[in-house]
Specification:
Number of helices: 7
CATH superfamily of the largest domain: Uncharacterised protein YqeY/AIM41, N-terminal domain
Structural class: mainly alpha
Number of domains: 2
Oligomer: single chain
Shape: globular
Number of strands: 0
CATH topology of the largest domain: Hypothetical Protein Yqey, Chain: A, domain1
Radius of gyration: 18 Å
Largest sheet: none
CATH class of the largest domain: Mainly Alpha
Strand content: under 5%
């Protein structure tokens, strides 16, 4: 995945696509920050799984910024954040639709024999292990709460 991002940086530079290049450089910087342990984290070797987690965090931050900018009437800044989300999501695995999330959660509840709210942590842990990068766990949590009432 990192090789693809690096190649896309080169392609954007050659094409003169400044907006895309800027976002790709932000991605590269975030990956390097994680590698060297910026922010009090221990330095690690960043693999594809970690890159996906970094990208998901970046998308979440931008969505929060979009909401803030729109609330403040700054559509110009919100539009830039939306563009960055599109570029970043290009590197993320395809997300499950709502029906897929419901089916996966229901299947896992049955498989693990979850019966009530006390089993929620165990089911969410298994979901994160099996569907990392493929599912919005906020939505999955809501679906799970409904099932385990």
């Amino acid at each position: 995945m990192r090789a693809r991002i690096t190649q896309d940086v080169k392609d954007a530079m050659k094409a003169g696509d400044k907006a895309r290049l800027s976002t790709l450089r932000l991605i590269t910087a975030a990956i390097k920050d994680r590698e060297i342990g910026v922010g009090g984290q221990a330095p690690i070797e960043v693999g594809d799984t970690e890159v996906v987690a970094i990208l998901q965090k970046m998308v979440k931050q931008r969505r929060e910024s979009i909401a803030t900018y729109e609330k403040a009437g700054r559509t110009d800044l919100a539009d830039q954040e939306k563009f960055e989300v599109v570029v970043i999501e290009h590197y993320l695995p395809k997300q499950m639709d709502e029906a897929g999330v419901k089916a996966a959660v229901a299947a896992l509840v049955t498989e693990l024999g979850a019966a009530g709210p006390k089993d929620m942590g165990r089911v969410m842990g298994a979901l994160k292990e099996r569907f990392a990068g493929q599912m919005d766990f906020g939505k999955a949590s809501g679906v799970l709460k409904e099932l385990l009432k």
